[in-house]
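Hi! If you just cloned this repository, the fastest way to understand the data is to look at a raw example. We've pasted two of them here, unedited. The first protein comes first, obviously.
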Amino acid sequence: MKSHKNPYASRMKRQVTIRMRDDVIGCFKEMFEETGIPYRSLINLYLRGCMADERRPDLTWRSNMLEKIV
């Protein structure tokens, strides 16, 4: 039997590990309670929305911003 390329391979998700603050995860978990959509899917939807709208993070660094991040 001859193998075929998966036509949906370009749309498949790839597992990654990222570190996020508890308050960020908590925010998306609250959205899960409201919507029933798993919080990981909500994070993916949000990031895809940012891509579609060509939104970029504010990378203007201020001294007090560093304190909040760390």
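Ok, and the second one:
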Amino acid sequence: MSSAAKVGAFMLVILAILGYFVLKIENLDMFGPKLREIQVVFDNVAGLNERSEVRVAGVPKGEVTKIALQPDGKAKVTLEIHDDVPLFEGATARVANLGLLGEKYVELDPGDPRARPVTGPNIVLRGSQPASIDDVTTQVSDIAKDVKAITASLRTVMAGPTGEQRLQDIVENVRLITAQVRELIAVNRVNVDATMANMRAITEDLRVEIPKIAASLDRAANSIGGTVGENREDVRRIVENLRGLSSDLRVTADNLNTITGNVRSGEGTVGKLFTSNEAHDKLVAALGSVEKGVTELSGTLGRVGKMTLDLGVKADYYAGMSNETAGIENIGGKSRSAVTLRLVPDPEKNRFYHVELADDPRGSREDRLTVETETDEFGNETTTTVRRTRFEREFLISAQAGWVLDDLALRVGLFDSSGGVGADYRFNDRIRVTGEAFDFGGKRDDNPHVRLFGEYTVRKEKPHTPRLFVTSGVDNALNDTAFIIGGGLRWRDDDLKYLLGSIPLPK
């Protein structure tokens, strides 16, 4: 077996071990369950993207594979769910948020298990969506308008001479009521005394003129006298309670006079609210600040929910690269490994950011000229110029900004720690071709560094399963040409996405 074949076999083993550890750490399943497709029609799917999760009772059971606009203006969403999820008549779906700051996902309600099961290849469900932050903002704005109207009405009713006269009328009516109650008590006491006197006169007349009737009336009078005697204490208590009630009403009237006086003079919180324009202006300003804060929060949540972040690791073997140029004796290999990060702030716009940290086998080249002078035994001097070249392994950084034009993506920025440009062409969901050119100033090579390679997706990313891909192509075609053989993993990281969501990005 040749040396290149041994190194290639060793790199494949290392790549397999790396993939195994990544799957274990991320708790990923390479062989997921059997899937099936269903369609859901929504009026609005704002914030929902392809590859968003599908959950049943909060448990992840699939993802969104396609979002399309129908001729009637509604959105048709294709879901890929696990085959073990049963569907019954009346099944529905809705767009929900994963917590306050969480991303959008589809919550699937399978329906009543007692209903008839729904089967077949063309299942279409009706979807719904919850109230958005914009709806909440509109309601808060309406509440603020109502509060403004109430304060204006109170100021109109209570402020000025008209409001003061109304308060005085209320106090006067309370005073008249207490006086009438006092007079009513006094009138009733006189009537009771008069009634008792009349009864005595009648009994005396009946005793003289009709003895039998007088005797009967006397017994009746005694009975009435006993009854009045028994209830006299109750009558006294009633009178005392009415007297206490009149005193309490008088104190209440005095308190009302004091309160209205304070309000009229602008003292206390209520007085300042009724008479001070400053308090009204502060209340309006506070409501305006609340409305502005809700608007800014709505915009922030919308941007974070739309953001997508992909992480990846890959390893390549450079076959055919010369040992002398690569500095194998000092560096020790022809492999290149890299960690990549791709950030898309808003999928509806055509820009993205790409960052990569790589360990390059070519290393860093340093040329040094040394002048050496030798003197022979006869005193003759000989001057020799020696050029020494040294290679050291180093980490290279790539940081690029990109724009998407249909199936073509253009990138510009740092490529392996030097300026350059690149382009990616996407044939379909599995095949992509990439071309990069950089190091135009001859920093590391005499000619610009050109890299051409293709990428093939072996397995698409699924819930709990990363994207698995292989690569092949040509590196440094204008200098030390090497053939690329490698592969790697790529997956979406939502936790890191929300950490980066606090970083301000251009709109």
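That's it. A detail worth noticing about the second one: Residues 211-265 form the longest helix (55 residues).
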